Amino acid sequence: MEYFLPSIAALLIAALIVFLILPRLGASALVGLSVVLLIFCLYNHYKLFGAEYRYSTWQEQLKFYAPFLMYGSLTVVILLYLGYLFNKEGPSMIPASNISDQPKNIVESVNNTANTILTNVANGVGIKTNQINANAPILTNLGNILSSPNKRNNRIM
Questions:
Q1: How far is Cα 140 from Cα 144, in angstroms, rounded to an integer?
Q2: In terms of domains, do 83 and 114 share one?
Q3: For 146, what's the count of Cα atoms within 13 Å in the CB-facing half-sphere?
């Protein structure tokens, strides 16, 4: 019980600080506070776990290769990204849909895309596509699809 009440008090104080004080601080004050807290936490971490770092065995030999590994992997990632940017025939990040390059009306384009998706879903679950009205709003189509009985699941045992 002696550990329960102080931890609840610390949690309540932290919640008050997070919800009442921190939102009122500016961005530069928050950055400065986080840097100070990071330095404080790093100091405490190395103070508490310094012995484990001193007695480390096989990891000590690997720390000399860490900069080369990080710079090498960063260089490879940057080169791959640049290759992706300048590749004219590469795969597109945007999936193919029926939205044209110059839509006449955004609502019409969204409805066309949603109706295409609903048709594909209906075909996937075995609903006839003639139950979907292309001129009806999206929610009407969705309601019709969800309320129509599926013939495959109506088996008599």
A1: 6
A2: no
A3: 6
User: pLDDT digit string (tens) for 57-76?
Assistant: 777 778 888 899 999 999 99
pLDDT digits (tens, 9 = 90+) for 92-147: 555 555 555 555 666 677 777 777 777 776 666 665 555 555 555 555 555 565 55
Examine residue 101 and state whether it is found in any structural domain, yes or no: no
Q: What is the domain range of residue 80?
A: 29-88
Q: Is residue 79 part of a domain?
A: yes
- CA 143 to chain CA centroid, Å, is 30
pTM of the model: 0.32
Q: Are 148 and 131 in contact (CB under 8 A)?
A: yes
The alpha carbon dihedral of 114, 117, 121, 122 has a sign of positive
